[in-house]
Amino acid sequence: MSTVSSPLTAILLFLLTHCAAPSQRPASDVKFIVIGNTSPASPFVGYAERLPAVLRDINHEHPVLVIHTGNIIHGGHEWMGITRKDVTRQFRNLIKQKKIFTSAIHILAGAGDQFNGSLELFEQYTGEKLFYSFNYGDSHFVLLHIIDEGRKMSPEQTRWLREDLEIHKNSSAIFIFSHHPVISYPQNGTRYSGGEELHKLFIRYPVKAVISGDANNFYEYAKDNIRYIMAGCYGFNNRDWHWGFYQYYIGHYDGNRFTIKGVRVNFPAHEQAKIPAEE
């Protein structure tokens, strides 16, 4: 039997060798956004006027996920004149705003997200747990519930964190997020009471950065090769003097190096909110 190379065979060979599947991002490569402090200027307004423009700007960055470090509403207590209706209106507007995002968003509770000292409404409307973790590719992301300097983590959360870090000890990188900073630079008077204890735990694992966002500014402090980063955001309301502050941050890990940079949004001269407050 004679063998003849047919044109069809040649075409198939060409397709197999030259038309491979599109290249995929390495499993260790991840680009994410950090944002926070997006609450309205007043609990009686219901929305931050400039926030929709920021969310649209974030979409143009094409992140794989967004981490919100808390203060999504302007909460408070009834003795301040703030009612449950004022708070729920803000949360309902948040649900509308989330629909602008084209990527997954994870939200931490902030001190400003409480009503009468409780986060019940936060959990109800966001559907978020107060602390949890997830993976993206080879990286592990941990969201801790730390909202002020004096309130230590519960025994339940502490036990969970130890187990979670041990389970994911072989991750390419671990990124930890909290509302209040775990550790800040020595000159800063703000201290979390359990910070040093947590740091001793973190250094046993491939923790690249611990990122928080309860302040308005940015600073970074390195300790034992762990970067403690305050990624504070500001400028989402018309009355805010936003110049000089970042509205969000872009974090990128390429499997070896982690970078983070702040972004200032160029707001239109007369930005109108696209998400009206509820009547």
Count of strand segments = 11
CATH architecture label name: 4-Layer Sandwich
Low-confidence segments, given as residue ranges, are: 1-5, 7-23, 271-279
What is the highest CATH level, the class?
A: Alpha Beta
Q: What Rg do the Cα atoms give? A: 22 Å
Order of helix and strand elements from N to C terminus:
HEHEHEHEEHEHEEEEE
Spatial strand arrangement across the major sheet: 4-5-6-7-9-8
The count of helical stretches stands at 6
Quick structural gist:
With 279 residues, the chain is α/β, with parallel strands linked by helices. It is 23% helix and 21% strand.
List the helices and strands and how they pair.
Layout: H1 7-18, E1 30-35, H2 51-59, E2 65-68, H3 84-98, E3 104-107, H4 120-126, E4 132-136, E5 139-143, H5 155-167, E6 173-177, H6 195-202, E7 207-212, E8 218-223, E9 226-231, E10 248-253, E11 258-263
Helix pairs in contact: 3-4
Descriptive report:
The radius of gyration is 22 Å and the shape is globular. The chain has one domain: Purple Acid Phosphatase, chain A, domain 2 (4-Layer Sandwich), CATH 3.60.21. Helix content is 23%, strand content 21%. By secondary structure, the chain is α/β, with parallel strands linked by helices. A six-stranded mixed beta sheet has the order 4-5-6-7-9-8, with no helix packed on it. A five-stranded mixed beta sheet has the order 3-2-1-10-11, with no helix packed on it. The longest helix is centred in the N-terminal third of the chain and has 15 residues, at 84-98. Helix 6 (195-202) links the parallel strand 6 and strand 7.
